[in-house]
Amino acid sequence: QLCYVCGQRGATVMCCKEDCDRWFHLPCAKEGGCVTHYIPHYSSYCHQHRPEQDVQVTPEPGTQCLICMELVDDRKTFRTMVCPACKRAWFHRDCIQGQAMCAGILCLRCPLCRDIREFLSQMFILGIRVPFR
């Protein structure tokens, strides 16, 4: 199969959306805006069919990522996320992924409001890999 992100052969991951014929390599997924769920059923979605955050807020101008302290985009995107509980904590996908890898499932929570229930379930849905340690 051809990877729709890089165009090379050997793609092994297919979008789970019915009637979608996009295939991609797992390492190309992030670059292509794809989302992979690292929880059972281990589903993967292309950029067009990936789950989106259903929180309807936009960051204030000059809002910084709470992890790296760099500015976030002026809206919610694939690379910019918000805490679903407090709706005030903004962060980059790469930053929260790094935090998740260090914290693990027992310690990962919103950096601002410290919510764990809504925050963790949303991170799983949005394809953030959280190790069970």
UniProtKB/TrEMBL annotation:
InterPro entries: EPHD, PHD-type_Zinc_Finger, Znf_PHD, Znf_RING, Znf_RING/FYVE/PHD. The keyword Cell cycle does not apply. Keywords: Ligase, Metal-binding, Zinc, Zinc-finger. One of its GO terms (molecular function) is ligase activity. Residues 1-50 form the PHD-type domain. GO terms for cellular component: nucleus. This is G2E3 ligase. It comes from Certhia familiaris (Eurasian treecreeper).
